[in-house]
Design a protein that fits this description.
Radius of gyration: 16 Å
Number of strands: 10
CATH topology: Rossmann fold
Shape: globular
CATH architecture: 3-Layer(aba) Sandwich
Strand order of the largest sheet: 1-2-4-3-5-6-7-8
Largest sheet: 8 strands, mixed
CATH class: Alpha Beta
Strand content: 25-35%
Length: 241
């Protein structure tokens, strides 16, 4: 087994973007693939490492780019500034994450009929909006994502299966937002699950998160449990379809 990676340049309108693809070259058959949407800081080592971990599990991982080639935030203020245009224009967010999925389907290592998407924080919102937009990806997984409905997808059917891995005490997605999401997903006809981890806040998968005042703290227990839940979800997703 040798894990290979390559950068994939693509565009959304005039914006130049760059994702990172990871796969195991021990098997040259097209295989199921997972797009990975990044946190509010932009595509970095965290997401790239997740792509490699997925490749080690037999999938193709694709760390996508929502902001533009080489654009990364270096502080909460910069991160918020990068994320803000997408929060204000959810149609733009939806178009861009759909574009990333289209690019992933085009890669020769990928079985274009077996695609899923996952995301962290802002990326969790991205993949939920991917599902809300009516995408035919088989499933989406939100890790400590934000849940607020975009306002432009009411009445849409959600075809993708949905898994939300959530810190119950997350100040950015309080319990009432979980209930609202459940209502929204049920009305859209989705097959959905929410796993809530007690005594757990935002960014629980990020070992660098250690800001209790902001509500971002790493939890090794929730991190491990959520990765197991992801594995179970992908195994079921790709076996059943």
């Amino acid at each position: 087994m040798t894990i290979q990676t390559r950068l994939v340049a693509y565009k959304h309108g005039p914006v130049e973007l760059e994702g990172m693809l990871a796969w195991d070259d021990a098997d040259d058959r097209p295989r199921p693939a997972v797009a990975i949407a990044h946190t509010w800081a932009g595509r970095g080592a965290f997401e790239e490492n997740k792509a490699v971990a997925l490749a080690e599990s037999g999938y193709v991982g694709f760390a996508v780019d929502m902001y533009g080639r080489g654009i990364l935030g270096g502080s909460p203020q910069e991160n918020a500034g990068l994320m803000s245009p997408f929060m204000e224009d959810r149609a733009l967010l939806q178009d861009r994450i759909n574009r990333a999925v289209d690019v992933l389907r085009e890669q020769p290592e990928v079985d274009a009929g077996r695609i899923a998407a996952m995301g962290f924080c802002f990326g969790g919102l991205c993949v939920l909006d991917l599902a809300r937009s009516g995408s035919d990806v088989l499933g989406v997984v939100s890790f400590h994502g934000m849940f607020g409905a975009p306002g432009n997808t009411a009445g849409n059917s959600i075809r993708a299966r949905v898994l939300c891995l959530h810190g119950y005490d997350d100040p950015m997605a309080r319990p009432e937002s979980v209930l609202a999401l459940g209502t929204e997903l049920s009305e859209a006809g989705a097959d959905w699950q929410v796993h809530a981890y007690g005594n757990t806040v935002h960014a629980f998968t990020n070992p660098a998160a250690n800001d209790p005042a902001m509500g971002t703290v790493y939890s090794p227990v929730a991190d491990r449990r959520s990765w197991v839940a992801l594995g179970n979800f992908l195994e079921e997703l790709f076996l059943l379809d």
